[in-house]
Model the fold of this input.
Amino acid sequence: MSGTQTDRVPGPEALGPRLARLRRDPIGMLTDLTREYGDVVRFKFGLEHVHFLNHPDLIREVLVTSSGKFHKGPGFQDLRRVMGDGLFTSEAPLHHRQRRLAQPAMHHSRVSAYADVMARIAESRAARWRDGERLRVDAEMSALTLAIVGKALFDVDFEEEDGRRVREAITVVLELFNRQRPAAVHAATDAFQGAMDELDAIIYGLIREHRAGPDRGDFLSMLLMARDEDAGSADGGMSDQQLRDEAITLVLAGHETTALALTWTLYSLTLFPDVEEELHREVDAVLGGRTPTYGDLASLTFTRMTFAEGIRMFPPVWAIDRRLLVDHEIGRHLLPAGSVVWLCPYVTQHDPRWWPEPERFDPLRFLPEAEAARPKYAYFPFSAGPRLCYGEPFAWMEGTLVLATIASRWRFDLAPGHPVEMLPIGTLRQRHGMAMDVHAR
Done:
């Protein structure tokens, strides 16, 4: 403690009727609380004392400066039922060891090798579409990103028989988990447990195949080759259980978040035709109708900024929670050990102090000079600090290349009358899906 006078944390004595709204519309409720009480708000949610923080300096304090004083919050504990102790859910010292072991798999040279895979799969998926056809774009993006992750992680083609088994099991797990959490993780249904058993059997089978063969150039091969003296196994490598946890983490967390980001970005483009026109101008000038490659990334600057703005507007990981391990002073407020801290990328990334006209879709916010003028942690869709998303480089490359591939050939209109509503559960989904009409350019 610094010894400075600490202030009482402001907030409602009781949520009362606002509790129902917090469950139904957490983003709207949290936005209203910050407007009423400021950047630090305290309230009771169930048995937990929650402190909601909404300022870049406070976000940096939690995720970076004092990150060692926090563990993942109760929201992440549900995920252990599915992901085990993968990088997304584990704590120190296991998290540090796993990150050291996994880091080579996300090395620049390794990730760049998947550019062709990303573009080729995006092109193959888009080739199935027909001019004027109505698509469930959310389902299309989910199938596309799952195929990319499957090939990059396991060297598995999800269009073939073994790949279809993986895809079907993952789909069931995700749907049941998101629909029923936290109930699904405390008292799993037969369907949920059956899908988990099927997914585990497939993953362990792939691990055995990879152990018995040569380097196949995928992430699983890299994870198998990684060595660290503190890894917990006789040869310094990951155990089968650790490999399983990391593989499922990458599949489940990696493909859904990017699919959601792409869906929300394509939706946003339908509302801002001037941005769409500029995107088309860039992909036409850079690609000239051909499939993008890794070498094109440096020239696809507006495309990348468009994807970045899509993630600002609709961050797939819309909320982050942490639990304090010790008493800690933050923003002149003393937060007691055991408190739960909530951060909300959606709320912060729509704060007009950092984002003028926050509901306007404007990729130019991500020009270097605009970024330099903003507090760094006004934008944190991939978290930050030691828990910065391990797959962030993969996600940026995938989002940019897939968006460029699609935009060079197609444009979209929202299906007339289709309702668009956010569904903030584990991730920021679309409550009614995303029905859009696709048009050849």
